[in-house]
Design a protein that fits this description.
By secondary structure, this protein is of the alpha/beta class. It is built from 15 helices and 24 strands. Strands 3-2-1-4-5-6 form a 6-stranded parallel beta sheet, sandwiched between helices. Strands 16-15-14-17-18-19 form a 6-stranded parallel beta sheet, sandwiched between helices.
Length: 451
Amino acid sequence: MKIIVAGCGRVGNEIAEQLIKENNEITVIDTDYKTLDDVTGECDAIGYHGDCTSFETLKMAGVEETDLLIATTDQDEKNMLACLIAKKVGNCQTIARVRSPQYSKEIVYLKEELGLSMSINPEYAVADEMVRHIKIPSAFEVDTFSKGLINLVSFTIPENSPLDNVAIKDARVKLGSNVLVCVVRRGDEITIPGGDFVLKSNDLVSLALSLSDINAVYNAFGIKTKKIKHVLLAGGGTISYYLAVKLLDMGIKVKIIEKNTARCEELSELLPDAVIINGDATDKSLLEEESIDKMDAVCSIMNSDEENILLSLYVSNMTDVKVMTKIHRNSYEDIAKTLPIGHVISTKKITAEYIIRYVRSMKNAFNNNVEALYRMMDDRVEALEFLVRDDKKFEGKPLKDLKIKSNTLVCSIYRKNKIIRPGGNDIIRKGDNVVVVTTNTGLNDIEDIFE
């Protein structure tokens, strides 16, 4: 596909890089020469210098022949205008990055009026990601499918776990028939396990389950957990606002520390039920004064990666608390994953997953076959939810008679508001939503899982 990415900041750069890996032809537009040089130097993209809201710039970049324009500048208005012009001039599909809470409330109307194919709010998506982790505090990673009925929950098996050195087929007695072990990472080795695979302490495992089963699963693995009631948000930006709204609606008490006095006053008006503190979240005396040791979760979501990492290190060393850390810079991500700073969240990676899901859908004969897409285990595993629009390929055959690719597992089938844990005799039917986990990345359609 021919795709134009307008705006090559951190998010635009990540999107361009990931879409090239998906074998798309990418053109990037930016007003800054150095930014363009950085992007085109790192990946095989064509660069154009100019304003993405300029008819001439878009025309030079090939908008009349492009399939999709993605506008990811740091200005919502510019993104929406670029999409509007591209739609009129090139009649291509368009995606706009829209971050403002005000525009987000009006996005349904704006999409219709501007002809947007999709809008993406990275900050809102990050807030959603953090909420999932707060709901399941002992999880390393949480991904949701089938309208929230199926979750892929990843966590590390603790030392002296009752399921240490137990084969998966034997562990099913304790885990229950509705729980499926989908992926295991042991050291640097990743496995899509069968029933004979033996679990060991310190394995990072990913299980498909419903939230109603999570406590029983934790008990089976010997994981101690507690419900989160008090959350500290370090930084009062847009992510913090979206996250606070969600947490307050869940009945969780929220405390926000923000340096900027004017922003504190604004947050006090927007979030009357939250406690807003004007101060530096890396100030040890302030943290002690605000009873950091009494918090159940701390989210480091300031604008500075260094401050986020320092705060998370400090909190992780002094308290038994759920820690989440937002990281911007590529150069910090690999290092951050080796540090005890809880779950590392990247705004640009979450945004890229949304975009890639949509692009894969565009490549199919039928739109929206890829309903959900998540990358796991350092992007080496993909978890996808497919909508089955045509079942002729399967001809009513049970799964045991279909040749599924190696390192691929069908985790669940969602049919008529019911979840089916698929066995060899189950059949994939038209209208099903099928969740698949695989190390064969780049799948576009449910048919791609078969040899």
